[in-house]
Amino acid sequence: MDKSKGTLESEISKALTHWEKHYLGRGSVSVKSDILRDMIIVLLRGILSPAEYSLCQDKEGLLSVKKARNGLVESGIEELKEIVLTITGQEVISFYTDISTRTGERVMVFKLSNNLENHFL
């Protein structure tokens, strides 16, 4: 691999922002991707709409926003795996995500088939 770790992380962030806008209809305010061993950890900030924030005022609304948002992302998992494979050359073997309804942040963790970070040492 001839690209730097920072370059790959930046490409992943840009591709996920593009995916969000096209698949979910809106993007986050900021995206930061980090390659750590055999994982790519992505933090997306500013993903909730004002209406979703107001829905999150009670537990029932909070759970419905979490469920809906996580369901939307999970429904696009094959595209997300393809994005990671195309950029890194690594297969995604598992995917985890959660959203904080308090901060409006989403965390995504892509577990890869190999230790990608070793390519940069």
TrEMBL record:
Domain named Na+-translocating membrane potential-generating system MpsC: residues: 5-113
Could you tell me which InterPro entries the record lists for this protein?
MpsC
The molecule here is called Uncharacterized protein YbcI
Q: State the organism of origin.
A: Oikeobacillus pervagus
Identify the taxonomic lineage of the organism of origin.
Bacteria, Bacillati, Bacillota, Bacilli, Bacillales
